[in-house]
Amino acid sequence: MGNFKLANNRGQLTIFIIVAVVLIAAVVLFFVFWGGLRTSVVPKSIEPMYNSFLSCLESDALVGIDVLESQGGYIELPDFESGSEYMPFSNQLNFLGNPIPYWYYVSGNNIQKEQVPSKSFMESQLEKFIEQEVRDCIFEDYYEQGFEIVLGEPKAKVTINDDSVEVNLNMEMAVDTGIDTALVQDHKVKVNSKLGKLYKNAKNIYGEEQSTLFLENYAVDNLRLYAPVDGVELSCSPLTWSASKVFSDLEEAIELNTQSLKVKGGSFSLNEKENEYFVVDANVDSDVEVRFVNSKEWANMFEVDPVEGSVLISKPVGNQPGMGVLGFCYVPYHYVYNMRYPVLVQVFSELSGEFFQFPVAVVIQGNKPREALDTSAFAVESPELCQYMNTPVQVNTYDTSSKPLDADISYKCFSDICNIGKTQSGTLTKDFPQCVNGFIVVKADGFKESRNLYSTIAGGSVDVILDRTYEKEIELKLEGDKYLGDRGEAVISFISETDSKTIVYPSQTKVELSEGQYEIQVYVYKNSSLKLEGTTTKECMEVPKSGIGGIFGFTDEQCFDINIPEQIISNALAGGGTENYYILESELAKSKVIGINARTLPTPATMEQLQTNYILFEEKDLDVVFK
């Protein structure tokens, strides 16, 4: 029995060896067979199917090129970075629902960054796109005709030229019609496209912007043309501007003037009707056109300082008590702006109808353009304070009823501000920069901003309670009669220790307040025809004697005339008063209107009477009613 089993096992082993040899031989013969069929000449019966495949490959390449051109050189977008309250930019511009990575932007934590793709990066992106899409080419009609089609793993190689894009695809394609067979491995298409030329010109425009900051320089011009920045006006009443109106005018001016920009040297040629001011001198090819686009609907940020609530107000000099010697009034003003907004640059080819586009952030800080960015850098220096955040601090935020509140947290140390983050369910634990006597700044919609003195040398925890704000209608009366403003305007201010809110009534009738102690001030101005005559006064002073006498301290008297021009005062203080009032949250929550009754003052006819009104003003109180 034992010998029979051994013989049986040996027989089975022999059969297995024979089967394995046959299988191996079959596989070898298969590859030899197909290898012999690998050819660059496709049989005529297979040509229609293969041409269909090449057409599909070309179509995939065109789709990828279109995505690259419309998304600033990206098919696969970089990881999304959100903006912040202080820097509204994410790292992508949403243009008609299409996200386009910024080539230059300012991140939410105030770091300047670049996302400029290289040519090799775009080629790599297109290669990956083609490798993903080419296996989805549809051969249903040929399957129905009895074709057997087997596709191997694709490996693409893309070359972007000025006027074309070459695609070399390495992928085994085995085709059997039942009569003819073929195995094709290398597939090539050449697509007519200006991608390379458009990208080159886009890089030139971007380089010009980074080296000369021409977009920022136009922004400064817009600022000084359409917003109050600095100056002096002869007036005895304050100058006021609505901040929201100033920002709205700036947005409209920037949108219109940005679209008026053109690039010299391309298909554009200056004619007599064109304004040379709007022409940018940059190195672009003669058959391309460059357009600049901005929309006031895009994320932007406008700041101005000083501002009282939503009003820019500059007060006159010369009408205060004791300054009658001047004989005239003037209003000096100086405002500092920060602006950040996007511009989309589009480079067109008239020959192919293609365009390549990329966005950049335009940054104005303190009325001046940002510092030029080295185009070889990815990120430039941020405030040094914000680079070394290593002290853990827990911030808990609540409303006045002790309910957790989500709020934006930043830290201010001297002039530097670092964005920390946002509380979740009223709590944020994160690393802060080390600073003595810095401020934790807390902001939330519908609540008053809070600044809490806090040193971060050691870690710790801080609780912050935010006061809710309420928007209230103001109703002004003068000696019991409703003030209509038909003969002038009134300036109403609510001044507290931490901030002030000012409106120009009746053009503005609403103010946002929270609980606290306020000094309420009302200045009522009426139309006036007060005329201050021009005067000439003589001033004399001692000056060193010329020649050798000056060496020994001898002097001469030198006199000169000071001319003060004639001045017409069109608005003069004619009413108002002040009142210290602690506003309770319950008063704000239960009322709709804040009624203020002010006192009248005599209409001044001379400069002395105008100054007397300012003395009387200090003695006038106000009646304040919440209703």
Record keyword descriptors for this entry:
627 residues; alpha+beta; Immunoglobulin-like; disordered N terminus
Layout of secondary structure:
Blueprint: H1 2-37, H2 47-70, E1 92-95, E2 98-101, E3 104-106, E4 112-114, H3 119-133, H4 140-144, E5 148-151, E6 155-160, E7 164-176, E8 181-192, H5 195-212, H6 214-226, E9 230-233, E10 239-242, H7 243-259, E11 262-264, E12 279-281, E13 288-293, E14 301-305, E15 311-314, E16 331-334, E17 336-349, E18 355-365, E19 368-369, H8 384-387, E20 389-399, E21 408-413, E22 416-422, E23 427-433, E24 438-443, E25 450-454, E26 460-466, E27 470-478, E28 481-482, E29 490-495, E30 500-505, E31 510-513, E32 516-532, E33 535-544, H9 548-551, E34 555-564, E35 567-583, H10 585-590, E36 593-600, H11 607-617, E37 623-626
Parallel strand pairs: 11-12, 20-26, 27-36
Antiparallel strand pairs: 1-2, 3-4, 5-7, 6-7, 7-8, 9-16, 10-15, 13-17, 14-17, 17-18, 18-19, 20-23, 21-22, 21-24, 24-25, 27-28, 27-31, 29-30, 29-32, 32-35, 33-34, 35-36, 36-37
